[in-house]
Amino acid sequence: MSKPIILCYHAVSDRWNDPLAMPPARLRNQVRGLLARGFRPARADQTLATSGRLLHVTFDDAFSNVSDAVTILRDLGVPATIFACSSYTDQPRPFAVPEVAPRAVGFESEIETMDWSTLKALVREDVEIGSHTVTHPHLTHLTDKELDVELRLSRERLEDELGRPCRYFAYPYGEHDLRVRRAVEGAGYEAAFALRRTGERRNRYALPRVDLYRRDNLIRAMVKTSMVATALGKKHPERPDSRE
Predict the structure, then answer these.
(1) What is the rounded CA–CA span in Å between residue 125 and residue 162?
(2) CB-hemisphere CA count at 13 Å for 47?
């Protein structure tokens, strides 16, 4: 039986020539291609509850330019989830994590993050907002106490500001292990999203996504969303050692 496909994007930009920055027209064509292959638009909760050819789209980091992609997806009838870091939403600014900021010199506006008013407007449009921690750390490197702060405070802040449960979590850099997954569950999240399949049994706290980047044209996207390609693990371009 077919399984849902959940896409993972980051920035959406024509101007910034970076692996994380997907041109809007290319994103539109990738999603259209999956719809043409028979995938049906679905909310995040539907992909958790049901098998079959379902399609959901997610965005990590809550970059401001993702608003353009939300418009594209709304026109295509495809639901979206945006994962935000609460400290960046409290004080919208360029996403200054060391793996990304040096590549955005001269294009700082392309990595500016959404503010609370923008997220609230998206919630009114039925966009799901999930947590991406407080500060976007490498979770597997944190102490248990630090990990708990990143997970609980981000969820509580999002719930307080947006006035609805923060049900879902996405791992920064796609990094997680058994300790981190158990902490996410203990922090009250219903599910957590990772990156590509590792061959392990489906885990509600390591749900696979197909991460797509600027170099992924329609053909590459088709290959990466095939059942064979999604089982392959690759490095994430926010990581300093990435070759994506």
Answers:
(1) 13
(2) 32
